[in-house]
Amino acid sequence: MIALIALLLAADDTPTRCASMTRSDPAEGERAAERWSVAGGGSKAKQCLGLALTAQSRYAEAATAFEAAAHLAEIEKDALASTYWAEAGNARLAAGDPAKGRAALDAALAAGTLKGLQLGEAHLDRARALVAAGDMKGARADLDAAMHDAADDPLAWLLSATLARRTNDLPRARSDIAEALKRSPDDAQVQLEAGNIAALSGDAAGAKAAWNAAQRIAPTAPAGIAAGQALAQFDTPTGAK
Question: Is 149 a residue whose pLDDT tops 60?
Fold first, then answer.
């Protein structure tokens, strides 16, 4: 363990090494990060702890660690503070706390230092928080920004399509779900939403095809189960002609 901490402290690519360690043995990574933090690892040690906790699905604790990393980075005048705030926001969302998630993401985006994919993913996460708060207009603005900087992420197109459906913009919904399908045709959630949009558009055959695909891809997952329930409307009652 001491050798591992020494390696982390000495490494120029500490975040990469930390990420690798937390994937291979998250509990060991947590212990190493805690000792590294005591040894003066600063914000990077707290981020490492957050990654280890995330790998163990301990999202609320991970968010606290990322927030600590962000505060320390701000004290250290480290531009990575915005990255840590974004990670904290994502963890808060995973923990089911969109209000705190939005606060962290607001801090991440306010810094103005996120670029490219990181910027897009932060906008995407804040859109999720805004939808939870019922702010559809704000969510649309963030999703449009996310689709500019994270255009290859099928989740951006999926969430944009879902929001468009919920706000009765079916042309936008159909366009965006088509983009999601191009990028992730084997995602049951994408197929489920494709079915939902097709059904609202009056395309029964398209809805059935998409829902059958969702059920086939992930029969026991929530998306697959929801697709099966949706398909039940097409069942012919016993004795019916």
Answer: yes
